[in-house]
Amino acid sequence: MQVLVTGFEPFGGDTINPSALLATRLGGGRIVGAMVAHEILPCAFAPLQARLRGVIAAHRPDLVIAFGLATGRAAISLERVAINVIDARIPDNNGDAPVDRPVIAEGPAAYFSTLPIKAAMADLHDAGIPVEISQTAGTYVCNAAFYSLMHLAATEFPNLRAGFVHLPCLPDMPAAYAGQPALSASTMHRAARTIIKTCLACNTDRRIAAGAVA
Ligand code: PCA
């Protein structure tokens, strides 16, 4: 089994991105016999699809878990759905800020994560780690990466299981000093290892209520 984890470069004025630190820490390790590789993705819309295709072709993973930062969230956010829209409130690291454009022209409106997110939620909960199912990954670079990843899995890499996980801030980030919720790097690492173990052990997701009432 080959696992690929990805993180993002810092963006929006930050000097660190917890997802890049986490992916780097996981990369090169083994989890229950599976090899874990890592890649850091640019926080930019234009190169995403080609970059993801390249890293999947290079590593040939059975499982891809993409991580990103969601400032303001207090828990590990297991994303349920990627949508085919970009609406960038701030420019990406190339200065691009597309508004109301599809991630992939002619692509379907949305893709669901193919990770067992409810089983992972239960396992994280049992491990005492704050966790939630998220019904939206936003409309910025993380959602675009999630959508592109799922589109590649649907069209070019049919045996690939993939999904996206948003992380809170780290305690030493300026946003955390300003009052945003944070989680330690070691808790994020424990969470990621738990999610990977759940994905390796579980092919069919559990059915546990974790929806949102609007
Ligand atoms: N978070 C941003 C992009 C990169 C990242 O780590 C997002 O949620 O879209």
UniProtKB/TrEMBL annotation:
SUPFAM superfamilies documented for this protein: Pyrrolidone carboxyl peptidase (pyroglutamate aminopeptidase)
A Gene Ontology biological process term: proteolysis
PROSITE patterns found in the cross-reference section: PYRASE_CYS (PS01334)
CDD domains: Peptidase_C15
EC number, as in UniProt: 3.4.19.3
UniProt function note: Removes 5-oxoproline from various penultimate amino acid residues except L-proline.
Similarity comment text for this entry: Belongs to the peptidase C15 family.
The protein's name: Pyrrolidone-carboxylate peptidase
Organism the protein comes from: Acidiphilium acidophilum (Thiobacillus acidophilus)
